[in-house]
Amino acid sequence: MSWPCQAVRSHPPPLLPTQLESHYRAHHGWLVHWLQRRLGNAADAADLMQDTFARLLAGPSTQPQTPALRAPKAYLATVAKHLLINHLRRQSLERAWVDALAALPEQHVPSTEQRAQILQALQAVDAMLDGLKPKVRAVFIMAQIEGYTYAEIAAQLGIGERSVKRYMAEALTECVLLAPDLPA
Questions:
Q1: In the chain, where are the structural domains located?
Q2: 60 Cβ neighbours under 8 A, 6+ residues apart
Q3: Does the reported pTM lie above 0.90?
Q4: Is the dihedral of CA 23, 29, 32, 38 positive or negative?
Q5: Interval 33-46: pLDDT, tens
Q6: First to last CA, the chain
Q7: Using only C-alpha atoms, what is the Rg of the chain?
Q8: Between vectors from CA 86 to CA 72 and to CA 76, what angle results, nearest 5°?
Q9: What letter does residue 59 receive in the DSSP assignment?
Q10: Contacts of 27 (CB under 8 A, 6+ apart)
Q11: Residues ≥6 apart with Cβ < 8 Å to 167
């Protein structure tokens, strides 16, 4: 029995292929232009626009059921914005990796295959860190990259050492779950 004051939650139907095609025809032009203004690169903008619509096509298996979009531009811009942020972060990571390689003495430069594997691992770790809650990510970075002790982290973040340990355990669990996906 449903009480009159209770909101009934129902999942909207997924986008049908004809709806997706209609949204693509109506909105792909402005979306690629919107992305190109932010990227300054037509090829990357076109790729991200396609990825945006691919997300819609993927539907319920990768995201909650997609509503028959009431505000398609806003929805597409949101999806594209997230993809754009990931793209820019990946580019920044790749630039930092290339800069780090350039600073190495020639005898220590990894092979092309090793470089690709290391970059893939860096991207996987970056994605894992991005998926962590902000405090968990901050604790992990402070401990593992910046070398702070748990007591120092607790003092800087204004939390107890017990919370620091809990956050580290959460982050390390994600690292362990990520390990099988990393190149050997």
A1: 15-107, 110-183
A2: 14, 66
A3: no
A4: negative
A5: 999 999 998 999 99
A6: 55
A7: 22
A8: 5
A9: G
A10: 72, 73, 76
A11: 135, 136, 139, 140
Rounded to the nearest 5°, which phi and psi values hold at 65? -55, 130
Copy the structure tokens of residue 82. 């997230």
* Amino acid in position 70: R
Q: Are 84 and 39 in contact (CB under 8 A)?
A: yes
User: Options 3.40.50.450, 1.10.10.10, 3.90.1170.50, 1.20.1250.20; which CATH number does 110-183 get?
Assistant: 1.10.10.10
Helix pair angle (72-103, 112-131), 10° resolution: 130
Structure tokens at 180: 């099988």
Q: What average pLDDT does range 76-90 have in this prediction?
A: 86
Q: How far apart are CA 9 and CA 7, in angstroms?
A: 6
Compute the distance between CA of residue 11 and CA of residue 167 in angstroms, rounded to an integer.
Answer: 34
d(CA 119, CA 158): 34
What distance in Å separates the CA atoms of residue 49 and residue 26, rounded to the nearest whole number?
13
Name the residue with tokens 């919370």: 163
The answer to whether the CB of 155 falls within 8 A of the CB of 148 is no
- Give the Cα separation of 173 and 183 in Å (integer): 18
pLDDT-based confidence at residue 162 (cuts at 50, 70, 90):
very high
